[in-house]
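anyone seen this seq b4? input:
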Amino acid sequence: MDVTHGDLAFLPLGGTGEIGMNLNLYRCDGAWLAVDCGIGFSGNDMPEVEILLPDPGFIAEQSRDLVGLVITHAHEDHIGAVAHLWPRLACPIYATRFAATVLRRKLGEAGLLGRVDLHVLDSGASFELPPFSLRFIAVTHSVPEAQALVVRTRYGTVLHTGDWKLDPNPLVGPPTDLAAFEELGREGVLAMVCDSTNAMVEGEAGSEGDVRRSLASLVAGISGRIAVTCFASNVARIESIAKAAEASGRSVAVVGRSLRNLEAAARDCGYLADVPLFLSEQDAEHVPDDNLLMIITGSQGEPRSALSRIAADTHPNISLGEGDTVVYSSRMIPGNERAIMSVQDSLVRRGVRVLTDEDHMVHVSGHAARDDLRRLYEMVKPRYAVPVHGEWRHLAAHAALAREEGAEPILLEDGDVLSLSSNRAEVTDSVPVGKLALDGNRLLPMEGGVLAARRKMLAGGMVLGSIVLDGAGRLLGTPQVSAPGLLEPGDPETARVSQAFALNVAELPTQTVFDEPLLREAAKSALRRALGRKLQKRPVVDVHLIRV
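predicted toks r here
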């Protein structure tokens, strides 16, 4: 791809056509600017992995021309991949205080804190990363200090909204800066790259103040232990839960590592100032049931989260059962439905009452609904609308709304290069994109050999054969065959496979027996033949060779 010519272009590497993994690029006169760098959940169709990241390969190759990475807010789908991908980007990072505080902890855990040039900016700040002239605009979202980003260039101005909503009573932080958007609209906006998450939801997003009042009433009427699960970064919600507990004479304990980390970040930045320090999960054991409220991680059914382990009765400190109540003060992220329902089923089986936003006013979205979108278009008046941050049905609904509001919509998918510097905006190129899996501390390509083998093992299982050969290449003893997930150790079929495997190996030509690589492949083929067709599976097959 030619990156030397003068132009303005927008290129999403993640987050367009999907929920999560936001990684967006702007190019101007050969220089690159990155906006956000987040993770996503794999969902039900990829059980071999849990956490996904956008593949930064394209921009990593252009890293010498990457002037910076701007973080719009501290949600994991916008900030969660930074510590994993920064070594390939190696650029300065710009963020507000809360996002920077969250990011410092992540960078510290990754051993990168001393290497990253992290710039902390005020909400609404203006800053220069030539050839880009940038300005934050404060917006309301379900995390403190969320910012829209104004990208000014000699070709025109682009508004990158990030995640936002309109809420006259956000409780934590200021309302969305409507005056700044109106001023921008008067100046003229070439394109608006805008959040599409709730583009299919009629009406307005709703106010956090309404949730606070409802939670206070709900908690007051519940006996027994109460556990509330929500997104850890929603500081306003955590404050509302804490105040509801305080009004009902309950102490608050936090359960889950991400909640403890976010509480620390919030208090460091001056949030939760009038909320007493939370108890630890160990302290919760000594509080009477009717005087305890726990805030617990795991609203999305994450397998290793605190709530999932509590539901499975494997948590070391907390258990829930008959007479207890769990409140889901969150929404289901698309793709997580099955995991969430499984946790809720396990809780109900244990006698726990489960309440959700379908039963009570315990959650409002942090994303703009259709009336909010209409109001923003009326203020900003962009020439072009570029829907991002959503699956295709969200992008299409957003595009139709934008057209109704007088903007020309342009639908993209990850990898599309949208040129904005000519008389007409158009997709002029595409670049390779992909996904990486976070596997422990490793990053693995989704199409690589490790995950391909894992997918095959999930579908067909694995069979491992072990053979011992003497110095003359003769088979010693009976080969051992292990087939976890396919055959029980005492299954007669296992003995049959072992015997057939031994016969097949014994028949191998002499020249094969003394050629190690050839012998290994021949032994695998012998084991596959021994398995035959009875299992009606195509497992991963491997062989251990021992020479004595």
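Residues 461-547 form a domain with the Ubiquitin-like (UB roll) fold (CATH 3.10.20.580). Residues 193 and 399 are 11 Å apart (CA to CA). kinda curious what u guys think
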